[in-house]
Every structure is written in structure tokens, then in C-alpha cells.
């Protein structure tokens, strides 16, 4: 008896076979005439690649924008509110040297987020503001009396 025969025998004893006719709705999309997604999937009569719009004008940001190595050009609009800065920015720049399919890219970006949150606490202290990380994360309830305003 082969390994697959043993697995099949174990599967049959563990759970009985289901009769598809007894399951309500089983095979409801088997008929192409009754398939609501069929016209969208049938591209045999299309006259083009599927994109029938013009690319919007590209934004020209005045801050550094980090771009994936997979993409040759920037998207039409990019976020400019938080450019890379400090140690977290250095880590982010390193992350964008990796492909998005590599763990190093995402792990460095997560590390940069943690470093950025610590940098934010130091920034608050430098400006004379008392940091409240637990209230800002929603872990602790804000007190009735505000201490830092």
C-alpha cells in the first residue's frame, strides 16, 4: 500500500464523502449562462488591453519619495506629508533597496516604523510636550483632566 493510498483511506474514514446534490447551491456557477462574472472574464472579443483611460499628469513632489525597485515610474500622486527623516529614514532607504518580495524589505520597514515612533517621543520631549504613547495608541483611557495643554 502506497503513502497516497494510506492517506486516501484515512481521509475516507475520517470524513464521509459529500453528495454534491445534497448541498444547497453546490455548482451554482457551473453554467456559463448563469455566471454573473462571465462577461468580465470573456476577453476574447475585447479590442484592447483593458485600460481605456489616459494616465493623469504626474505630481512633482518637493520631498524625497521612496520607490520600489519593481516599478519603473512613480504613480500619478504620492504622499508628501511624511518624508523619510532621521534614523527611521535611513532604515527606510535601506528597505527600498530590496524587492517587495523579500523579507528584508518588509522587516526593515517595520523596524523603521518602531524607530519612528521612538523618534516621535524624543521630538515631543524636545518641544516640551509630555508624550502620552499609551493614550495615543488607545491602550489607556485619557484622564478627565488634561495635563499637557
The coarse silhouette is extended
Strand content: under 5%
Q: What value does the average pLDDT take?
A: 80
N- to C-terminal distance: 77 Å
Which structural traits does this protein have?
149 residues, mainly alpha, extended
Concise structural overview:
With 149 residues, the protein is an all-alpha fold. The chain is built from 5 helices and no strands.
What can you tell me about this protein's structure?
Helices cover 37% and strands 0% of the residues. With 149 residues, it is an all-alpha fold. Helix 3 (86-95) packs antiparallel against helix 4 (103-126). The longest helix has 24 residues, at 103-126. The mean pLDDT is 80.
Q: How is the secondary structure organized here?
A:
Layout: H1 3-14, H2 38-41, H3 86-95, H4 103-126, H5 133-137
Helix pairs in contact: 3-4
Amino acid at each position: 500500500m502506497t503513502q497516497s493510498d494510506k492517506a486516501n483511506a484515512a481521509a475516507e474514514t475520517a470524513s464521509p464523502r459529500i453528495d454534491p446534490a445534497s448541498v444547497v447551491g453546490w455548482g451554482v456557477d457551473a453554467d456559463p449562462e448563469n455566471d454573473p462574472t462571465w462577461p468580465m472574464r470573456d476577453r476574447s472579443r475585447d479590442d484592447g488591453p483593458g485600460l481605456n483611460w489616459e494616465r493623469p499628469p504626474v505630481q512633482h513632489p518637493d520631498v524625497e519619495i521612496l520607490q520600489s525597485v519593481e516599478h519603473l515610474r512613480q504613480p500619478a500622486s504620492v504622499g508628501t506629508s511624511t518624508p523619510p527623516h532621521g534614523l527611521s529614514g535611513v532604515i527606510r532607504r535601506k528597505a527600498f533597496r530590496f524587492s517587495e518580495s523579500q523579507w528584508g524589505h518588509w522587516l526593515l520597514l517595520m523596524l523603521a516604523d518602531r524607530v519612528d515612533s521612538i523618534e516621535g517621543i524624543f521630538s515631543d520631549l524636545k518641544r516640551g510636550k509630555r508624550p502620552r504613547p499609551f493614550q495615543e495608541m488607545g491602550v489607556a483611557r485619557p484622564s478627565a483632566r488634561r495635563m499637557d495643554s
